[in-house]
Write the structure tokens for this entry.
Amino acid sequence: MNIPSNGELMVSKAWIQAVALVMLIGFFIMGLLAYYTYRDEPPIPAKVVDSNGTTLFSGNDITAGQEVFLKNGLMEYGSIFGHGAWLGPDFTTDYLHRAAEMSNDYYGGKNLDTARQQTIADFKTNRYDSATGVLTYSAAQADAFQKLTTYYGQLFGSPTTKFGLRQNAITDPEQIREMTAFFSWTAWAASTLRPGKSYSYTNNWPPESLVDNHATAEAVVWSVISLIALLGGLGLLLAAFGRWNYLGGHSREEKGIQFRPPDDVLLTPAQRSCAWFFFIMAGLFVAQSLLGGAAEHYRAEITNFFGVDLGRILPFNLARTWHLQLALFWVVTSYLAAGIFLAPMITGREPRGQSLLSYLLLGALALVVFGSLLGEYAGVNGWIQKGWSWFGHQGFTFLDLGRFWQILLTVGLFFWVVILFRGMRNRLHTERVGNMPWLFFLLALSIPAFYAIGLLVRTNSHFTTTDFWRFWVVHLWVEDFLELFTTVLVAYIFVLLGVVNQRVALRLIYLDIVLYSAGGVVGTMHHLYFSGEPAIHMALGAFFSAAEVIPLTFLTLEAWSFLQLGAQQGSQAVTPFPHYWSVMFLASVGFWNFLGAGVFGFLINLPIVSYYEIGTALTANHAHASMMGVYGMLGVGLALFCLRYTIPAKYWSDRLAKLSFWALNLGLTWMVFATLFPLGLIQLYHSVSVSYFDARTLKFISNPSNSLFEWMRLPGDALFIVGGTLPILYLCWLGISKMNKRTLLEEPEGVLFTEIHEPI
């Protein structure tokens, strides 16, 4: 069914005003926080000298060391300021702890109270001279720097794979010295007092008793305020939900619905091209899942992958790079295809040449995917020395692809918007801004717009600044605007099928935008509590990220009402509903949105929890449950919806769709509750009771008890891969090999997929 155009605005203008107000306030606050980021980030000294004035390293060495760290993909092995990967140590913490131990030894041993007090004084006293740009280290700190340069040379130059890295990963002594300087600077920022404050530049993170780093009052107080805000907000929400019916307007209850058999639906050329998008998507999904299993196995056995030393072929940092990047690639591929497929359904027509443009987009997407993967392989193996940040491994988690590929992907996403605009142009001209066609187009436009912000991330920029802009992509792009585009996609599918009234769907979309963006925009700052930002980022990030749970709860309730309404209307149809398993995937999105993004996200977003937890298995638990549970399940659901029209009925298999649904959901549940969640709790307990430093060591991560939990994940992974991803791959193969050949060059106005009958 294509929705007829009309000139009226189908919702109250108050909805549009509410959206504008929320966005204006949210991004105004984000602008202020950007200003404070640049103003108050930890200073990079012109040079660091010892107590005699001898230069240890320069500011240029710090920047060069950061680039060595990124070039070798080490942010996909360990972390800085808590952000990165979770097999290797957090190098800020690692350097700080080891340097403090060496300082204690320098002053006579940790058993001497005078040695402990002098070490604390050395690390807490801010000896940076802003007038000259000179930072002075104590004699003990200078001695520790020299010793740790040797230590990191042995770690990264190891001729074995026992640490999960490739053999002889970094052997150049100058690069080791520069990278150690970078680690040393981050440890200095994490321990020395911010001018005029009683805590460090990183809000006293990491917790380290050797330098008297402990949770700040701000971390405790804002955690309490966040809990109060959450409980109060949920109370108001449930009261409102019980008092008013936000959806309302079940205008199809008196009407009969007749679903056209999918074989009777004529597809446009661009819609047929989408089958190839979905086939590529499924291939990437299978590869991404296999890489995830390989990366996780490192935590059980580092040098023995079922008898193979995997690190010689696929070191951990490369496996994790590809695993994360392919997750984004296959989900985005599904979204792009769904947008192209839905456009003719929305407008009732398709301009000539759309299929050619979609194939060009697919070719560009394939070039970015495979070009960036090869570049990262070459970068991690040290084959690209000049232009590494452009064509190799750019090094930032979720933005690993080289800058050239990043730009090309951004251009490709804007090209996709051009394709959508070309297909919807006539409809947009006749619709009021604010109705569903415009929301579909504008939210599609937000995807390349917010991904493009990642271009502000530069390998030679201040690390605090780069993390600020990087999380605009990780959070605002992935967790906010993709979430909003998700809502409009799902709503439009139900409207186009005729099971939900357009006004009802439109209210839900606006409700989603208002409620989610109210917390989601400024809530971006919950990632940046300890990255060198001032405490205001923690305060606002904690409060608004707690508020994110409120709309997730509300929208989960509304989504179930939405789905129940659709099911009710579908049950009254005179012909079978052809999209049962696609809708089941959409229903699972609501469940995982609440559990993965809401419950597990809130658990780690409280500042006092994040203080001890950041970079542990609880972070991975939240990431898997929310990324795969929300965007992954939606990506598969969209593929099944479109493929149902592409694959002739005699080849379609509801059994395979059912198998995939249960295998993916049960496999993800197993992954979360058998391994990631219990491991995260164990690691959090160890971090609090022993030390964060020890909880992040390979010795603790790979101890026999933790390894047992890692092995317990194997059945869930096997079920997920074999029972979940392979059936989807086969269905997508049917989409191109058995494609419905009946093509419509220009769809006439009128009924397309569903017929609505007025009661007699």
About this structure: Confidence is low (pLDDT under 50) at residues 248-254, 745-752, 755-760. Residues 109 and 264 are 82 Å apart (CA to CA).
